[in-house]
Write a structure and sequence with these properties.
The chain has helices spanning 36-43, 54-66, 83-89, 98-101, 125-130, 148-157, 171-184, 228-232, 236-247, 249-263, 269-285, 296-316, 325-340, 347-366, 382-393, 397-407, 412-424, 426-434, 439-448, 462-471, 481-487; strands at 11-12, 18-19, 25-29, 47-53, 93-95, 114-116, 122-124, 133-139, 164-169, 188-192, 204-209, 212-217, 223-227. It has 496 residues and is of the alpha/beta class. It binds zinc ion (ZN) (2 copies).
């Protein structure tokens, strides 16, 4: 598809806003890796930091080794087809990773000094200062976390004067490199290794600060390089996670519309239509994904859907088009895993399972088993609320309590106003809910790609599920099913 129609231009939208994506290039195609030197040249970048983890490095090396193209030809002494080789062929000098190897620090402020290449040869600082160089850092995927320590590791490894970060990876690496590059005021390029999540073109950055998942609004990459050979060879769980993240958009889109009706939240039909179209195309392509060999066309559809979802969040300047109650549950589970140190499943795997749970609940609403317009019989009691939030959120409780004090989203007045509005728009909202796919339909699609289906598949206990239905909505002020269930006093979350 032609991403150029959306990039680096102001779109005057009927919603009343101007939408803009500052990303310069998006390539999702066979052999996209070979475009990297041109992309770098276009940006005028000369001092590159390459960041990967062992897995993402292996993904690129594997595919480039298999490639017979000239770009990866090792005939001139560059013996692998990695990104390093591509860069060296285009005239970049590779410097040693001084932090890991302990070699001399190439602080090339003075042309008369010397730096080290990875093979121990010295490189003159004059050559570096006048030429173009890169150096490469491989992080450990086992301990990779987008927290203060992870960020510190990247900053520590940086050489002075670095003018672009080239990230080779997907979810976590993408977020970390986006965050660091934003803070340092330099661009980053993402070489995508898996169609596993929708963060490539989003400016929303999911970080962990003080062990709490925190969303930062940062910047979009200068370029996204999605080589189909690399993406199609990604582990099946990652492809399945990407499908889960996309299928959750059924809920995100409907809840965005409902929130627009009930809380007068900003809504853009144009942005919603971009996500909707990408979602339907992915649904149609699922039968060709997750097999031994996923079809390259289907991988393209999935990756495009993920990239378009990210763009939609950037355009709307909110994660709304791509994140609803299914993401609230997934984020709560992610946060609990962090607090307890439990191993966390892939983001998209959690979103897929959460999508099934939320769809089940919407089906109960559509069938009249849950009445969203009934009046809650309990009144909001702040002391009880604080007590429960402290248990549910642990060290993150203060921020959650402060949010409630500021927004008063659970106050009796706010609840009554929303219920009144819900009554007013009842038919419209029931039409939106009834148009959702059933949990069985989505379950069949997730099954086809071998995705997780149950909470036990993703290390979530029954107790954690119950807690998340009650408390996940407290992370943000964002109207969705969980808030609706609270507002109407639905029995299973009546406690708060
Ligand atoms: Zn718009
Ligand atoms: Zn997501």
């Amino acid at each position: 598809m032609d991403f150029g129609q959306y990039l680096q231009r102001e779109i005057e939208c009927a919603c009343g806003r101007k939408h803009r994506i500052d990303c310069k290039y998006i390539f999702i195609e066979d052999g996209a890796l070979a475009r990297l030197p041109d992309v770098i040249a276009e940006g005028g970048f000369r001092r590159l930091l390459l960041i990967a983890d062992e897995n993402t490095h292996a993904a690129i090396d594997r595919i480039s080794d298999e490639s017979g193209s000239d770009t990866f030809d090792g005939s001139d002494g560059i013996n692998d087809g990695s990104i390093s080789a591509i860069l060296q062929k285009s005239g970049f000098i590779q410097l040693a990773n001084t932090v890991v190897s302990g070699d001399g620090y190439p602080n090339c402020l003075d042309d008369s000094e010397e730096a080290m290449s990875p093979h121990g040869e010295s490189v003159s600082c004059e050559e570096i200062n006048n030429g173009r160089y890169f150096y490469s850092v491989t992080l450990s995927s086992k301990t990779l976390l987008p927290d203060e320590e992870g960020i510190g590791g990247i900053v520590t490894a940086m050489l002075p004067g670095c003018d672009v970060i080239v990230a080779i990876g997907s979810g976590t690496l993408n977020d970390m490199c986006r965050f660091v590059s934003y803070k340092l005021g330099i661009p980053y390029i993402i070489v995508a290794t898996a169609p596993s999540m929708d963060g490539y073109t989003s400016h929303v950055c999911a970080m962990i600060t003080n062990r709490v998942k925190t969303t930062y609004y940062t910047h979009v990459p200068f370029a996204v390089i999605g080589d189909l050979g690399v993406l199609a060879a990604a582990p099946k769980e990652l492809i399945a996670a990407g499908v889960g993240d996309v299928l959750g958009k059924y809920i995100s889109l409907v809840e965005w519309q409902i929130a627009h009706l009930i809380t007068d939240e900003y809504y853009c039909p144009f942005v919603a239509s971009i996500v909707r179209e990408a979602l339907e195309k992915t649904r149609a392509a699922v039968s060709r994904l997750g097999k031994e060999d996923s079809s390259p066309t289907a991988i393209t559809v999935l990756m495009e859907a993920l990239v378009l979802s990210g763009m939609a969040m950037t355009m709307a300047d909110t994660s709304r088009p791509a994140s609803g109650s299914e993401h609230h549950l997934a984020h709560y589970w992610e946060m609990q895993a962090l607090l307890t140190g439990a191993p966390a499943a892939l983001h998209g795997a959690k979103v897929g399972v959460a999508t099934l749970i939320i769809l089940h609940l919407y089906q109960q609403v559509a069938a009249g088993e849950i009445n969203l317009t009934q009046t809650r019989h309990r009144r909001f009691d702040e002391a009880t609320y604080i007590q429960e939030i402290k248990v549910a959120y642990g060290s993150a409780a203060e921020a959650v309590i402060a949010l409630e004090r500021e927004s008063q989203k659970n106050s009796d007045t706010a609840v009554t106003a929303r219920i009144d509005c819900l009554k007013e728009h009842h038919d419209e909202i029931m039409t939106l809910i009834s148009a959702l796919p059933t949990a069985d339909e989505i379950s069949a699609l997730l099954t086809a790609v071998g995705a997780s289906l149950t909470i036990s598949d993703i290390n979530v206990s029954d107790e954690l599920l119950t807690d998340s239905l009650r408390y996940a909505k407290e992370q943000r002020v964002r109207y969705g099913l969980l808030q609706m269930l609270y507002d109407c006093g639905w029995g299973k979350i009546e406690k708060v």
